[in-house]
Amino acid sequence: MKSSSVFSTFFLAIGLAQTPPASPPAHMPEPPAPVSSPAPPPDTLIATVDGQKLTYGEIANFLKGMNPQMQQNAMRNRKDFVERFALMRKLSTLAEQAKLGERSPYKEAIESYRMNMLMQAEINEYVDHILITADDLQKYYTQNKDRYDQVKLKVIYIPFSSAPAGAAEPAKKHLTEQEAKTKAEQLIKEIKGGADFVKLVKENSEDASSKAKDGDMGTLSRADNVPESIRSVVFGLKAGEVSDPVRQPNGFYIFRAEEVSQRPLEQVREQLVKQLQSERLQEWLKATTKSLNIKFENEQFLSGAPAAQSQGAPPGK
User: Fold this and answer.
1) Residue 306 within any structural domain of the chain
2) How many domains, in total, are found in the chain?
3) Which pairs from 128-136 meet CB under 8 Å and 24+ separation?
4) 17 and 71 in one domain?
5) Given pLDDT bands bounded at 50, 70 and 90, which one contains residue 30?
6) Residue 230: which domain range?
7) pLDDT at 275
C-alpha cells in the first residue's frame, strides 16, 4: 500500500480534503450559507453523473461540513467544484464497494476523524449554551479594567549606529549608542526644564512618520503587539509625564503620555464575550478531565521506555 501522504496530497489537489483537528479546537461559529440567497430547493437538479442525479441538496449538505473559507473557495468556480465533488462521490463509492473502510489504516483513520468531529460537536454545543449576561460583562470588565488601558503618545526617536569599527563612513554620521543615550538624557532635562516637546521633536526626532505629526504616534493599548520594555514604561506614565530613555535595538525613545484612559465597555464587548466563553470552556474541560476515572496501568509505556526483550527460547531451538 502506498504512503497515506500520497492519498492526502491527491485530495488536497482536488480541493475537497479536510483535516480533522489534532487537539481540542476552539468553538467554530455556524458557517454562512454556502451559496447566495435565495437558495434553490434541495431537489433542484444540478448535474447528472453516470446517469445518477446530483442535486443542490447533496452539494449544500457537503458544504455544511466545510469551514467558511473553504465554502467560499468552492463557490468561486461552481462548475469546477461540481466536477470535483462528482469525482469524490464516485471514488468514495468505489471504496465502499471494495470495503476499504473496513481495512487498515482507513478503518482507524475514519474512526479517528469521527471521534474528533464528535468531540468538536460537543464543544460547540457547550459553548452555544454558555449564557453571558450584561451583569457578567460588567463584572468582568470592572475586575479587569487595567487590561483595557490605553495611552495616547508623542515620541522622540534618537537612533544610534551599531556599525563595526573600520566600516565605511555613511553619508550621514550616526551617533554611537552612548552618544544617543547622552543626547536623549539631555533632551529629557530640557523637557523637564520647560522646553516645548513638539519643538524638540521637530529638531531632534528621526522617526519620519511621527515627526510629520508633531511626534504623535497614536494610541497604544495593552493588547497591541509592542516590546514589553516599551509597554511597561508607557503604561506607567500619567498624562503629561515623560519617560526616561527607552533603549531599543537601534535607538532610544522618549515618550510623553498625552492622554491616559480606558477603552469603554461598549468597545470591548465582543472581546469580553469571547474571553468569558473561552474561560468557561476551559473550566469545563478541566472539570471534565478531572472527572475521568483513570488508573494508569503501564508505567513503562507512559515513560517511553523501550519494551523488555522476550525471555523465550533462542532462535533455532
Assistant:
1) no
2) 2
3) 128/27, 130/276, 130/277, 130/280, 130/281, 132/273, 132/276, 132/277, 136/276
4) yes
5) very low
6) 146-163+174-265
7) 95
* Helix (H) or strand (E) run with residue 47 in it: strand 45-49
Which is it for strands 216-221 and 246-248: parallel, antiparallel or unpaired? Answer: unpaired
Whose cell is 440567497? That residue is 37
| Confidence check: pLDDT of 84 > 60 | yes
Question: Can you tell me whether residue 86 is helix, strand or coil?
Answer: helix
* Residues 111 and 11 both lie in one domain: yes
Listed residue (219, 204, 218, 179) closest to 254, CA to CA:
204
- Asked if residue 153 and residue 261 are part of one domain, the reply reads yes
Cβ atoms of residues 41 and 134 within 8 Å: no
Nearest CA to 158 out of 244, 233, 250 is that of 250
Tens of pLDDT, residues 224-241: 999 999 999 999 999 999
Nearest in space to 60 (alpha carbons), one of 30, 86, 85, 34:
34
The yes-or-no verdict on residue 36 having pLDDT over 70 is no
Say which CATH number the domain at 210 has: 3.10.50.40
Same domain, 221 and 156: yes
Higher pLDDT, 13 or 192: 192
> DSSP 3-state assignment of 16?
coil
Structure confidence by residue, pLDDT tens digits, 102-153: 999 999 999 999 999 999 999 999 999 999 999 999 999 999 998 999 999 9
How buried is residue 97: exposed, middle or buried, by Cβ count under 10 Å (0-12/13-18/19+)?
exposed
Report helix, strand or coil for 252.
strand
